[in-house]
Fold this sequence. Notes:
homodimer; alpha/beta; seven-stranded mixed sheet; 45% helix; globular; binds adenosine-5'-triphosphate; binds magnesium ion
Amino acid sequence: HTRIIALVNQKGGVGKTTTAANLGACLASLKQKTLLVDLDPQSNLSLHFGMKVHKIEKSINELLLDENIKFKDVVVNTGIDNLELIPANIELSSAEMELVNVVGRERVLKDVLDDILKKNKYDFVIIDCSPSLGLLTLNALTTAEEVFIPLQAEYFALQGLGRLLKTVELVKNRLNPELELTGIIPCMFDVRRSLSWEVLEKVRSFFRESVFKTIIRVNVNLAEAPGYGQSILTYAPGSHGAKDYLQLAKEVIRKGKRD
Amino acid sequence: HTRIIALVNQKGGVGKTTTAANLGACLASLKQKTLLVDLDPQSNLSLHFGMKVHKIEKSINELLLDENIKFKDVVVNTGIDNLELIPANIELSSAEMELVNVVGRERVLKDVLDDILKKNKYDFVIIDCSPSLGLLTLNALTTAEEVFIPLQAEYFALQGLGRLLKTVELVKNRLNPELELTGIIPCMFDVRRSLSWEVLEKVRSFFRESVFKTIIRVNVNLAEAPGYGQSILTYAPGSHGAKDYLQLAKEVIRKGKRD
Ligand SMILES: Nc1ncnc2c1ncn2[C@@H]1O[C@H](COP(=O)(O)OP(=O)(O)OP(=O)(O)O)[C@@H](O)[C@H]1O
Ligand SMILES: Nc1ncnc2c1ncn2[C@@H]1O[C@H](COP(=O)(O)OP(=O)(O)OP(=O)(O)O)[C@@H](O)[C@H]1O
Ligand SMILES: [Mg+2]
Ligand SMILES: [Mg+2]
C-alpha cells in the first residue's frame, strides 16, 4: 500500500521543501520507491534537484489542467535510485486561479494521482506545498492519507498551528476521511537556543506521540546542498543533516500511519 | 510627504514581519510617525505586538470590504510612541477570495489608504505581506510607492528574486507608475557562513545601490521578542538586532525614495 504524505505548514520558511527533498532521498536510499510531487509555484523542490524550471514545458500544472498530458510526459529522474519527481514551474500559480471555478476543485490532484498509482508502484508519495492554505494545498490534503507538519521551533510557527489543524480537520470531515496527522517534525532546530527547547517542550506536551522523536538540527550543509542540485546524502553524507534525515526516514517507516 | 513601503517576498520565512515590526519601531524612535499595516492572514505582525487576533472584531479585512467601517474603528496602539497598527486576523484569508470578482480588485487598499492619509499625517506607512504574490500582495504593490525586499542570503531566496522583480515591473507598468524598488535588505544574515557572503556578493554585484548597506544579522533576541509582544528596542535594546534595525532605519531616512 502506497503511503501518500503531504508536507504542510502555511508559515513560511520552516523546512517543508528541505524535508521533502531529503526525507525523499533517505527513504529512497532505504529501498523505498518514492515519488516527490512539487505543488509549489515557487518550484523550490524542483530547483533542489537542479531542474531548470523555466525550461520545463510539461509539469504538474499541465498534469492537473490538461487531460491529454500523461504522467510519463512529466515525471523526471532525480539522479537518485528509487526517487522520481513531478516538477513544478511558475505556470502553477495560474492553476490556483483556474481551479477556483472547477467542479470538485479540491479533488483534481487526487484523481490524477489515483490514476498514476493504478499503473505505477510506489512505496511513498511526498507532496511539497507552498506556504499557504489555498486551493493547491487543499488538493494536497485531499489527496494525501497522512499529513506531516515541518515546524520551526519559534514563536510565529507555534501561532499558526491551531489554524492548520483546523483546516486538516475540515478536510478530513468534508473531503478526505482517510486523512490523519501522522506527525510534527521539529526542523531547523538550534540546540544552543533556549527558545527552541521551550517551544519544543510546549509542542510535545500538547501533541505527545504526534511529534516525531527525531529532531532535524540546523546544519549549513542542508542550506548549501540545493545550490548544487543535490540531496544531503550526496552533498554531505557524514553531516548532522544527513544523519538527522536518515533517522527521520527510519522513524517514518517504523511509525507507519496512525489509525 | 508620506513614504509608503511594501515589504514583499514570496519566499517564506525571510524576515518580512520581523523587519516590519522592528524597522517600524526604530523609525518611531527617530520621531517618524509610522503606521504599520498587517496584510497577512497569518497576522504575525499583529501577534508581534501582542494582539489577541482571534478576539479582534474589526481589522484590515473589514476596512477593505465594508464601507461603513472607518479607520478609527480599526487602528490600534502598539504601546510605542509614534507607532500605530492596522491589525489583521484570519478573516483576511477570505478577503482574497472575495476580492477576485471586485472591479479594480488590485486598488481596493489604495483607495482605503488614500482616504486615511487625507485626514491623518504619517511620515511612513509600512505594509507587511504574506509569502505569496496573490491579490493581497498586489494590493500592497499598487498602494505603495516603494518596495523593500527582505532577503535571506540562501539559495532558494535568490531563485525567487527574478519573478518578484517581474511582478513589481508589471504592477508599475499597469497599475502604479509611482512604484520603485528602493532596496533589498539582507536579513537573518549569519556572518560565520560562507554561503551567506557568497549570496550577498551575487546580489550586490547584480543590484548595486539597490542593496541596503545595513545587514540584519541573525540574533536570537529578534526571534524571542515577538513571544513577549515587544519590538527589539523594548525587549533587548543593547542587542545586535536592535543596533542593526536602528542602523537600517537611519539608512532608510537618509536614502529616501529612488527616482
Ligand atoms: N535544518 C536546516 N538547517 C539549515 N538550513 C536549513 C534547514 N532546513 C532548511 N534550511 C534552509 O532554510 C531555508 C528555509 O527552508 P525551506 O525552503 O525548506 O522552507 P519552506 O518551508 O519550504 O519555505 P517556503 O515556505 O518558502 O516554501 C532554506 O534556505 C533552506 O535551505
Ligand atoms: N535577524 C533575525 N535573527 C534571528 N531570527 C530571526 C531574524 N529575523 C527573523 N527571525 C525569525 O525567523 C523566523 C522568520 O521570520 P519572519 O516570520 O519575520 O519571516 P517572514 O518572511 O515574515 O515569514 P512569512 O513568509 O511566514 O511571513 C521567525 O521565527 C523570526 O522570529
Ligand atoms: Mg518550500
Ligand atoms: Mg511574515
